Amino acid sequence: MTDWVSPASGWVLAVDFGTAATAAAVREPDGTVSCLILANGAATMPSSVFADSTGLIVGVHADNAADYDQDRYEPTPKRQVGRSRILLGDQEFRPAELIAAIYAVVIGEAVRQHNRTPPARLVLTHPLAWNEARIDVLREAATLAGSRLGISLPDPVFVPEPVAAAAHCAAATVGREDTQADAEDNSDRPTSGLGDGTCFAVCDLGGGTFDATVLHRTDTGFEILATGGIDPLGGYDFDNRLFTYLADHHGQRANPSVSQTVQATDPGDHDSGHRRPVLQTSVRVSQPVLVTRAELENLIRSDLEATLAELDATIARAGLAPEQLAGIYRIGGATRTSLIGSVLNQLHSPVHVVDHPKTVVTLGATTPPINTPQPTAAADAGPPAPDTVAPSAGPGEPEPPDSSPARRRRTLSISAGVIATVALVVSGVILGARLTAPSGQKETNQAPSTVSPAPSPQAGSGPSRGLLASAAEVGKIVGEPVHEESTSETPVDSSHLVNHPECADAVFASESRLYQQSGFTTFRKLDLTASGETGNHLSVSQATAHMPSDEAAQKLLADAKQTWETCVGQQLSVTDSGGTWRPELQDVQEFGTTIVQFRNVSGDVPQWYQCQHAMNVWSNVVAEALACGSGGKINDQAGSVVRVILATAAR
Question: For residue 88, is pLDDT > 90?
Fold first, then answer.
């Protein structure tokens, strides 16, 4: 990290490149900190890019251009950082080039507002779990942005997003009035800064991901005690649920032709009101639709239950009980959903909102460098995907989590010709509603009352069938319906199909070579296949196994990792009833405690055939998944299935 530049020697620019939106903040030489107002008159801009014949355009302009050519459009380039190349239309780009186009617009506007004087310090924020390779992509993007602008920028300083948010939360002061949303869900503004020795949590629910971080305030900065998260899960998921709900329920009742029109409309329709008229006339029919708050909250209830469970588990990994926290700070654009505050109140810790949730990170990133020791439990931020992919198409599936690396923007417009007006009816009964745990379970998981590492409770040794992700859950992840292909209660042996039998564990899931010596007590495998509605082949194989102990589960995970690593670089071929195919295994990567391995596959397989293999453990439960498909659409489907399985085990 470069040395801090004192405010007197120049101005400081911090840029937060987000999944859905990008924001920036400026610290002036006199110490004044404020959000950067961009050329669009707002403090944020969409993080989207579009490749036209002249180059890359970004933000709202990219969104508008996408109406005419979706293949050249990438709405969430942050999800593509792990790839080597991205195909937009007939052009290939490195992720850094896409991000540089966004950085250039933000940095260019900031420099323009400072009389063409470059910042003395440039701060770039990033997810806490990102490794150096991903951070280097941002570094390259900043260099490219400087070249594009024709200015010399200082070497960027990198600050993890939750640490930047914590810095701003720590500086929060009294004197701010609660907003109506805060009053409804019992959240409040912090009444004082965070003193030394206090512990607190940052709950970040953005457009595409949920991140939970527990920190300890020290006299030199912040110590990260534990991290967690769910990727993908965010505001896009909520939007998709509401959009589809309106089409399927309200649209059909109000106008029978509406639901058909919606299904025929491009799922990437980010602003239906700006599209070419579907009707032959220029008349636009306004179709009012009434949606109650209860309806909206029911649509996102399962998602919020998942965030609550993940936050509670993260606090427990920090060796704390929720009651021991000085507070939980809500950041990220999607946290303004009032039900989130009510859900978080179940943890019995003060819930705070500080300033605008989206700009908290950039405002905090303008402060002097902060001590940030390594976390005790890294977040599983999701892996990079295989090399070259086409722009990410938005799934037609209405109920995420959707693991497509980028989802198309969807609005509440029912179609290009029929506009829906949505009214949220607020009932006093709904205000402050709480989510309750399933019948027979406690509403909160009690963490230890002393500040010490919490022991890992061992999952039951009963049938593992209940832990497997259902066809409906997998369908949400892959973005299309799937059906059950086969099941098994014992591991399989496919080593005779591989030219290097010792690599069967890496090529296939649920291999007996890996599990047979583990001493597992129960085992269950489920193979699912997509219905083919998208025209691309897709299959997901998942397995769960209960081990005799936590240690046995960890050993199996380590053995799997060793085998996967050993087989990288091997000239593998597999011959089965479908012909001969050749998997090219890529390096094993770790995201939190999840191990992930991608592969490109050639031979007797469909075009652009790829796979993702993922494995992780919770207590004595092992979860393994293998997702394979054509069309360059494999990203984090297997990792998402593993997280669903282990979240079920944790509950």
Answer: yes
